[in-house]
Amino acid sequence: MTRFPNDFLWGGAIAANQVEGAFDLDGKGLSTSDMLPNGILSPHESRKDRADGIKDLAIDFYHRYPEDIALFKEMGFTCLRLSIAWTRIFPNGDETQPNEAGLAYYDQIFDELAKHDITPFVTLSHYEMPYALTEQYGGWESRELITFFERYATTVFERYKNKVKLWLTFNEINMSLHAPFTGVGLPEESSEQRIYQAIHHQLVASAKAVTLCHQIVPDAKIGNMLLGALNYPYTCNPDDVLASIHENNQWLFFGDVQTRGKYPGYMLRYFRENGITIDMEVGDLEILASASVDFISFSYYASGCASADPKEKEVGNIVAGVPNPYLEKSQWGWLIDPKGLRILLNFLHDRYQKPLFIVENGLGARDEVNSDGEIIDDYRIKYLNDHLVQAREAVLDGVDLMGYTTWGPIDLVANSTAEMSKRYGFIYVDRHDDGTGTLTRTRKKSFYWYQEVIRTNGASLEE
Fold this sequence. Notes:
The chain is of the alpha/beta class. The chain has helices at 16-19, 54-57, 61-75, 86-89, 100-115, 131-137, 144-160, 180-184, 192-216, 238-260, 265-273, 284-289, 338-352, 378-396, 445-455; strands at residues 9-13, 79-83, 119-125, 166-170, 221-227, 231-233, 295-299, 304-306, 314-315, 320-321, 328-329, 335-336, 356-360, 401-407, 427-429, 441-443.
């Protein structure tokens, strides 16, 4: 088999807070992401008091979406993963009535996608939440956020039930352990007790959203999303093998709860041994047990190693791991491990026996425009080609793989650092770290490469 399944979904993934801009237009409220314009967490500083931040405009997808979606169609996309900004629908998060201007905006987006026969794949909360919920309620540490999220999910399911049939609840839900402000709206120095309590509320909210989606949009599918932080044992020493199991359990815990509907024994042991007590209400466990997701989606950028001996760790996609001496690194120091994607796909398939979806995978690099105005990004082509070859191998292994959406099909703003220089896209956007640039879109060499991959359903990939 040189091709992917005939119904395989091809596309890319973007997030509202990293492409839209228009941070204060049409009634939008401030989000936690708006408080991280340059990677400096200053939650008591009003976003409106700042000089123009790069996220204020981002790449102006808010106004340029017809042009960008047309480019995605030109590449052959059959799927676009995108997120709804919660603060466009409920600006402060606790309102009883939604903001119609925000709802109407996403109607336009979904209609534009339909015009081009591109399936919308929508994330309810992608690295952002209403900032007012952190100020007024203390973020996800408060149970009240379950009610607010339930209201938000109900609103968008009802509004878009005829337009959106693929949903995700929380983006990279396990990253709250590493960046709690972004994940659950808690200060970075929060204790594990507080973070895991907030995570419990988020897991209950996610389960409620799954149930609501099944009720309101019965022909839809809704999944979860994990940051695929795969760790190998650093050596074959049994202590290193155990260390890798413990490291992997930190993120697999989220998949276990969202798929199997209960807290796994290894997590209950961790809570006991670390003095963590989760305050649950009667019925919480039943809510989790009755709301298994339809599929597992995940991001994959790099693998890591785990060792029983203290070793210096390096940060990949937020999560730190012991470097692997057998792998090369990207310009940002992330380990490049295409075969790790095949290993992860087989691992998740064996563990959960549910369909899988690769919803983020890509290479951040400093792209240069040459004297002819071209961007020759052969390094990105090689990275994506090698990963897709391994994804195809996993399908041959028997993995049920629904689709593949690259991260950042168009250059976008980094969430935590507001960098534009770390580019992922097939489409170059003329905007720079200092906010200068024309926002002109230019097709990179990889644009035409991915176009051919989609046209041939993977047959053009090079072994």
